[in-house]
Design goal:
heterodimer; A: 400 residues; mainly alpha; ABC transporter involved in vitamin B12 uptake, BtuC; 18 helices; globular; disordered N terminus; B: 417 residues; disordered C terminus
C-alpha cells in the first residue's frame, strides 16, 4: 500500500454509500411499521420515513453511488405506496395476509425451485459459460420428472429421470457454446424454445388433453419431530419439502466446494483466466462441459420440485420465467451460493406475498403477481454494488 | 459514396479484428458483423435442417412427417400462389393466406425491434413486453375517442402504441445507459411486469375492463373509426388489412435509419465495438437509450396492427399466452438482422403459426396442439443453429475456413509450390 492511496482515501464520515444503505433500511422500516405486529394506522410516519429514504437515495445517486442510490429511491417509493395501501385496508385483512409463519413457509416453497436453478447457474457461469437456458432446463426437469414418477410409479425415479433430462439438454448447450463457440445468449434462447417445444410436444403426445393424472407419487415433506407443533417454527419450517432442505444444505456445500477445494479453484480459474488454467494443465473444455451439464442437472431438480413435489402435475410452460429469475438471483447474489440463497428468499417472499394479497382484492392480487419481477428488476438495478461477473464469461475458449 | 466507404472500412475492421483478437469485440458485435456478411444460403440451410429435425420428431412419435408438413402447408394458404389451384380450393387458400399475412405483419415489426437492438450490440428479449404495452395503449385509445374521424384516430392509436412501447423499452435502455444493467435481465423482467399489469387492467374488476360485459376479462371493443381498412378479402371475415404495408414501411424506415443516417452509423459503430465508438466521440449511453426506445416503438406498432387490424379488443388470455415477441427473436436472427431478411423470416414464421393453428390445420392429419409445439422446436433449432453460424459463415466466407476443411489438399499445394 503506497502513500498515494492513503492520501486520497475519502473521509469516513457519512459516505454516500452509507447514506444510500441507510435509505434502503429506512424504506423497509417505512413499510414494516404499517404491518402486524406494529400496525401503525396512519400513513404519515411512513410517508415521512419513505421521503427520507428517497432523499437519501437521491443524495447517494448524485454522489456516484448510483446503484445503491437508485435502489433506495425506488424502494422508498414502493414502501410509501405499500404503506398507504396497508393503512387503507382493514386490520383483519392485514393480519390474514401477514401471518408471518405461513408467509415464511410459502417463501420457502417459492424459493426452492429458484434456488436449485440458481445454484446450477452459479456453477455454469463460474466456469465461464453464460446460462440463460436455465429456464429450459427447469422445464425439462418439470416434465420428465412427472413423467418418470407417473410411468414408474416412484418419485425417486422421476427425480432421477428429471436430472438426466436436464443434463442432456445442458449437454446440447455445452456442445454449442463450448465446441461450436456459439453466441451463448443466443444459443441459450434457442435451447429455451427447444425445451418449450419438446416438453409441450411430449406432454400432448403422451397425456393428450386430459393432462397428467392425479395421485402421482410426490416427493415427501420432512416433518421435523421436535418443532413440528411449536407455534411459529412449526408452521414455518416444520413441514417443508425434502427438496427444499436438500437445496438449502447444498448452499454451504457448494460454497465449500467453490472456495475451499482444489476442484472449485480449478472451476473458477477456468472462468476467470482460461489461458492460465490451460497453461498449468487444466482442461478448460472438459471443466466447462462438466460445469454446464451439472448446472442442467441442478436446474432440472428445480423444475422437478415444481412438478413432482409442489404441484403434483404438469402444464405447458409451467416454469413461467422462473429460470430467468434464478439467473437474476445469480447476478444479484454476486455469483456466490449464499448470495443466491438470499436473493431467492427475497423473490420467494415477494411471490408468497403476491399469493396472499387476493384477500384484499382479486384484481389487485393479479397486479401483485408482477411484484417478484419488479423486485428482481429493482434488485439487479440498484441494491447490489456493481457485481463483477467471472472475467471470461461468454467468451468461447480457443486452445492455441 | 461516403456511406459505402464507411461500410467497407467497417468490414475491414471486423475482418482484421477476427484475425487475432476476436475477444476484443463483444459477442453480439461479432455475431452482428458476421450476419451482415452472410448470404441467403445459410438461413435457407438452417431452416431446412430445422424442418428435417422436426420431421424426425414427428416420425418418432408415430406420424407421417410428409403428410404433416403438407397439411401445415395447406393451412398456410401459400398454395394460392400456384396458378393451378382453382375454384373453391383457391378461395380457401386465399382466406388462409390472408390469415398468414395477418400473422406475418406483427412478426415483421417485432423482428425489427429485436434486430435493431442486435445491430447496436444489445439483446432485446423484451419484445413481448413492449408488444403487450403497445397493445394496451392501442386498445385504450382505439376504444376511447370514438367521435374522432377515422384517419386521425388510427394515427393517434398507432402513435400511442409506439410511444408506450418506446417508453417501456426505454426503461431497459435507461437502466443500461445509467447503471449498466444487463438488458437481457431487465427486458425479461419488464415482459412479466407488462403481462401481469395488462392482465390486471383488463381482468375482472380491473380499471380498463369492458364495463358492458362485467363477467368477461377483456377490454372495451375498438371503435369503428380506429379500425384499419381491409384491402383483401371480406372485412367481416377477418380479411387482410393495410397493417401489412405499415409493417413493410417500417422495414424501409429500419433500413434507412441504419444505413443512411448519422444515428444509424453511430448505432452500428456502438454495436461493433462500444469502446472504440466511445473513443471516437459517440455517446454510447445515449445510443443505448435511443436504440431501445426505437425497438420498443417497433414492437408497440406491432401490437397496434393486431389490435386495430383484426383483434379489436384485448382479452387477458391473449396477453398471457401471446408469444409474438419471442418469435420475433427467431425472426430477427434468421433474417440476419437485416430489413429484407426480417420480412422473409417473418413470412416463414407467420405461415408456420397459421399452418399449425387449430383453425387451419386439419386435425385428422396432425393434432394442432402437437403442431404448435413442433413449431417451438423448429424455432429453437433455428435459433440454435443461427447462434453458431458464426462458424458456418466463417467456413463459407473466408478461404481460410475452407482450407481447414481440406487441410490435406492445402498442404499438398504448398508443397508443390
Amino acid at each position: 500500500m503506497s502513500v498515494g492511496t492513503l492520501a486520497i482515501s475519502p473521509p469516513r464520515t457519512a459516505s454516500p454509500k452509507l447514506i444510500g444503505i441507510a435509505g434502503l433500511v429506512l424504506s423497509v422500516v417505512a413499510w414494516v411499521i404499517t404491518l402486524p405486529p406494529f400496525l401503525v394506522r396512519t400513513p404519515v410516519p411512513s410517508i415521512l420515513i419513505g421521503v427520507a429514504a428517497m432523499s437519501a437515495g437521491a443524495y447517494a445517486f448524485v454522489n456516484d453511488e448510483r446503484r445503491i442510490g437508485f435502489g433506495a429511491f425506488a424502494l422508498g417509493t414502493l414502501a410509501i405506496a405499500g404503506a398507504i395501501g396497508n393503512t387503507n385496508s382493514g386490520v383483519g385483512h392485514l393480519k390474514v395476509v401477514f401471518t408471518w409463519s405461513i408467509l415464511v413457509a410459502a417463501m420457502l416453497r417459492y424459493a426452492t425451485p429458484l434456488l436449485w436453478a440458481a445454484l446450477g447457474g452459479i456453477i455454469c457461469e463460474r466456469s465461464g459459460v453464460i446460462n440463460i437456458a436455465l429456464e429450459g432446463m427447469m422445464l425439462m426437469g418439470a416434465y420428465f420428472g412427472i413423467w418418470g414418477a407417473d410411468v414408474f410409479g416412484s418419485w425417486v425415479i422421476g427425480v432421477l429421470i428429471a436430472i438426466v433430462a436436464g443434463g442432456l439438454l445442458a449437454l446440447v448447450h455445452a456442445i454449442f457454446s463450448i465446441h461450436l463457440r456459439a453466441n451463448q445468449v443466443v444459443s441459450g434462447t434457442g435451447i429455451n424454445f427447444l425445451a418449450l417445444g419438446i416438453t409441450g410436444y411430449f406432454f400432448i403426445a403422451h397425456y393428450g388433453d386430459n393432462g397428467t393424472p392425479s395421485g402421482i407419487s410426490q416427493v415427501p415433506n420432512v416433518k421435523i419431530p421436535g418443532i413440528q407443533h411449536v407455534g411459529f417454527f412449526g408452521n414455518a419450517i416444520g413441514d417443508a419439502n425434502l427438496l427444499t432442505w436438500i437445496a438449502i444444505l447444498l448452499v454451504p456445500a457448494l460454497s465449500f466446494f467453490l472456495f475451499r477445494t482444489r476442484w472449485g479453484l480449478r472451476l473458477r480459474a477456468v472462468g476467470e483466466k482460461p489461458r492460465a488454467a490451460d497453461t498449468v494443465g487444466l482442461s478448460v473444455i472438459r471443466t466447462r462441459y462438466l460445469a454446464v451439464v451439472a448446472s442442467g442437472m441442478l436446474a432440472a431438480l428445480g423444475g422437478a420440485y415444481l412438478s413432482v413435489a409442489f404441484v403434483g402435475s404438469f402444464n405447458q410452460n409451467m416454469t413461467e420465467g422462473r429460470g430467468f429469475i434464478a439467473l437474476a438471483a445469480v447476478i444479484f447474489g454476486k455469483w456466490r451460493p449464499a448470495g443466491a440463497l438470499m436473493a431467492t428468499l427475497l423473490f420467494g417472499f415477494a411471490s408468497a406475498l403476491a399469493d396472499r394479497l387476493p384477500t384484499f382484492s382479486q384484481s389487485l392480487g393479479t397486479l401483485f403477481q408482477a411484484l417478484p419481477y419488479l423486485l428482481t428488476l429493482v434488485a439487479v438495478a440498484g441494491i447490489v454494488g456493481r457485481s463483477r461477473p467471472p472475467a471470461s464469461i461468454g467468451i468461447p475458449y480457443v486452445k492455441e | 459514396m461516403s456511406t459505402l466507404e464507411e461500410e467497407e472500412q467497417e468490414r475491414d475492421e471486423v475482418a482484421g479484428a477476427n484475425e487475432g483478437a476476436a475477444a476484443a469485440l463483444t459477442t453480439p458485435a461479432r455475431l452482428g458483423a458476421y450476419m451482415r456478411r452472410g448470404t441467403v444460403t445459410v438461413p435457407i440451410l438452417t431452416t431446412l435442417i430445422a424442418f428435417i429435425a422436426g420431421g424426425f420428431v414427428v416420425l418418432l412419435t408415430g406420424h407421417n412427417p410428409f403428410s404433416t408438413y403438407k397439411a401445415i402447408f395447406n393451412g398456410t394458404g401459400l398454395q394460392w400462389l400456384f396458378p393451378w389451384v382453382t375454384g373453391s380450393a383457391r378461395s380457401t387458400a386465399a382466406f388462409n393466406l390472408q390469415q398468414t399475412l395477418l400473422a406475418t405483419t406483427p412478426l415483421i415489426l417485432v423482428g425489427l425491434a429485436v434486430a435493431f437492438a442486435f445491430r447496436a450490440g444489445l439483446f432485446n428479449i423484451g419484445g413481448q413486453g413492449q408488444y403487450t404495452v403497445g397493445g394496451i395503449a392501442a386498445v385504450w385509445i382505439g376504444s376511447s375517442f370514438s367521435s374522432m374521424p377515422a384517419f386521425p384516430h388510427i394515427v393517434l392509436a398507432i402513435a400511442g402504441a409506439a410511444l408506450a412501447g418506446a417508453a417501456w423499452a426505454g426503461i431497459a435502455g435507461a437502466l443500461k445507459a445509467t447503471l449498466g444493467v444487463n438488458e437481457v435481465i431487465s427486458t425479461i423482467m419488464l415482459n412479466w411486469i407488462a403481462i401481469w399489469g395488462g392482465v390486471w387492467l383488463f381482468g375482472l374488476g380491473g380499471p380498463l375492463q369492458d364495463p358492458h360485459q362485467s363477467s368477461v376479462p377483456t377490454s372495451s371493443p375498438v371503435a369503428a373509426s380506429a379500425k384499419l381498412p381491409v384491402f383483401w378479402g371480406n372485412a367481416s371475415l377477418q380479411g387482410l388489412d393495410i397493417g401489412l404495408f405499415i409493417a413493410l414501411g417500417a422495414a424501409v424506415v429500419f433500413w434507412v435509419l441504419l444505413n443512411r443516417t448519422r444515428f444509424g452509423f453511430e448505432v452500428r459503430a456502438v454495436g461493433l465495438n462500444p469502446d472504440a465508438a466511445s473513443y471516437a466521440g459517440i455517446s454510447v449511453a445515449r445510443s443505448y437509450f435511443r436504440v431501445m426506445a426505437i425497438c420498443g416503438a417497433f414492437a408497440g406498432i406491432a401490437a397496434a396492427m393486431d389490435i386495430l387490424g383484426w383483434k379489436f379488443s384485448l382479452f387477458t388470455n391473449d396477453i398471457q399466452f401471446s408469444t409474438v415477441g419471442f418469435i420475433g427473436i427467431a425472426v430477427a436472427l434468421l433474417g440476419r438482422n437485416s430489413a429484407v431478411g426480417v420480412v422473409f423470416a417473418a413470412l416463414l414464421f407467420g405461415a408456420l403459426e397459421t399452418g399449425t393453428s387449430d383453425r387451419y390445420l386439419d386435425p385428422s392429419v396432425f393434432d394442432p396442439n402437437l403442431a404448435s409445439n413442433l413449431t417451438w422446436m423448429i424455432q429453437g433449432l433455428i435459433v440454435l443453429l443461427v447462434s453458431t453460424d458464426v462458424i458456418a459463415l466463417k467456413v463459407l466466407s473466408s478461404g481460410r475456413g475452407i482450407r481447414v476443411l481440406f487441410k490435406g489438399r492445402a498442404k499438398r499445394e504448398e508443397a508443390s509450390a
